[in-house]
Hints:
With 94 residues, the protein is mainly alpha-helical. It has one domain (2-93): Four Helix Bundle (Hemerythrin (Met), subunit A) (Up-down Bundle). 79% of the residues lie in helices and 0% in strands. The protein is elongated, with a radius of gyration of 13 Å.
Amino acid sequence: xxxxxxxxxxxxxxxxxxxxxxxxxxxxxxxxxxxxxxxxxxxxxxxxxxxxxxxxxxxxxxxxxxxxxxxxxxxxxxxxxxxxxxxxxxxxxx
Length: 94
C-alpha cells in the first residue's frame, strides 16, 4: 500500500505542476508535466487498482493535452477535475 500511495502522490504532484504551469500560460512546461501525468497513470494501472477507481482519468488527461494550446481554460478545468478525483481516490484508499 505504501508503494501505491507513493505513485498516487507523484501523480498528484505532477498534476499540480501542470496546473501551475498552465495558470502561467506556459504551454511547453504544461505539455511536459502532462506527459509525466500520463506516465503516472500508466504506473497506477499497473499497480492493480480497481479499474473503476481510475475511470475517467485517461480521458481527462487526453482532453487536457488536446486543448492545451487552443483552449487552455478547458485544459485547466480538466486538470482541476483530475485533481479533485485524485483527492477522492486518496481518501478512499485510507
